[in-house]
Amino acid sequence: MTRVASALFSRLVIIIPYAWLLFFFLIPFFIVFRISLSQTAVAMPPYTPVFDLFGGLTGILDKAREFSFDNYVWLTEDVLYFNAYVSSVIIAGVSTVLTLLIAYPVAYGMAKAPKTIRPTLLMLVILPFWTSFLIRVYAWIAILKPEGLLNQFLMSINVIDQPLIILNTNWAIYIGIVYSYLPFMVLPIYSSLEKMDHTLTEAALDLGCTPFTAFWRVTFPLSLAGVVAGCLLVFIPAVGEFVIPDLLGGSETLMIGKTLWNEFNANRDWPVSSAVATILLLILVLPIVYFQNAQAKADGEGR
Amino acid sequence: MGNWSRFNIASIVLGFGFLYLPIVLLVIFSFNESKLVTVWAGFSTKWYTQLWHNQALLDAAWVTIRVALISATCATVLGTLAALALVRYTRFRGRMLFSGMVYAPLVMPEVITGLSLLLLFVAIGLDRGFWTITLAHITFTMCFVAVVVQSRLLSFDQSIEEAALDLGATPVRTFFAITLPVIAPAVFSGWVLAFTLSLDDLVISSFTTGPGATTLPMKIYSQVRLGVTPEINAICTILIGVVAIGVVVASIVTKQREAQRERDERAAFAQS
Asked: Using a CB-CB distance cutoff of 8 angstroms, which residues of chain A are in contact with residue B29?
């Protein structure tokens, strides 16, 4: 009896979340891919169905002949999409590097802080993550506007006499991404630095390393796992970012998340937006798999 | 660890200033008398009183809170199960795929998740609206709960569970009597995280919504596109306040439970 109940319990623990994720996370990707192969139609939903599940095998085979890669051909013909993919990857890459440059000293300072105040510092890094993403991006509009707070401040201390144009440029997007994703970079770096054995750095210093060499040859390599995790946590979502380029970027800013959104909401072209999403996913599949492996490995160590 | 140099302190102060200054400015300007959000014209709470007369906004807030309550609760159950599956059962068929599906939503761009869920709902013929938003939120927040609970389970002393099983408790009873009380603080913070993520979400909600179900972020977004106003600052300040209070209460509760647990453990050792 106990054994049956035990087996049933362990089965259920696995099956319930597994089934949920299969149905609501994995299967939808196949639907996206399927619809990216169909034609746009003026109907609701606005695409011609690719599969008719009730048509049996012959029905499916008939439909399979109607598969069309038109949407993908369309994506390669219009240079706008290609540019949007390239510029998304570049913007996300630049922002990731900037985030790392700002986050590392913060994480390093936190790891060196007296033990008693570390939990408070940790809490302070996590707290902004809980407040709305939209609100945090919105807060920057009032700061970066030509007549905004940053320009007012810089002009009042006579650093500049013409307002800087930052809002609606790529600089605003960099600031937005760095700001929004900073905690994601600080936390993994902090946790790898905190776990570090500090006698190693001391040994390097004793053996005559300069503090910089000691940092670069000992501390930094040991924190690399945290750096990699942080970079992936920033880079992957930033490539598909929509809110930041939409609110802070300009009309000429091309980012694929925004393109997809417009294709879907303004043009109501579901098959093309599905094709856009499929290619975005293909671009991100490698970093995502890498992230999962790193994550799974970290859990293995935690055991 | 070594000495806390001036450089370390400076980088922390600058980093935290960068993190908090925009939010602080936003809160300050929600109390601005003037309609401009960049020029201070005196203290006023009129934007807050105006909010109470904006029925569309209040409706949106109510929808958002209901979605967040339901989805956070379901996501906590599913996420806790997922964490148990990942930590306790290291070998089952398709475990790789399963852990992949738990971690991928953490980094998946929201436009992809939103679009794919919408197409799923259309494919199965579900009417879009309140419930589709809720289902979508359960799906992406459960993975965050799973990660939070998982890290607690990893530092869990399994021998107490084994002791309970050896003494004849059923696995279900062991779970409710031993495991759940120990991981309860993590489960609770997972719930709070899921709740706030759901409260904040714009992109996934926009894709999966239907007529009649407008959430607060969607409402804020459509107003932000028209320009920055103190009224939006006021809504944002209220949201920030709610979340900040929630997080602080959650952390106090967690700390107290941890302290209580430690006292209990010490008492148990003292008796034995």
From this structure: 142
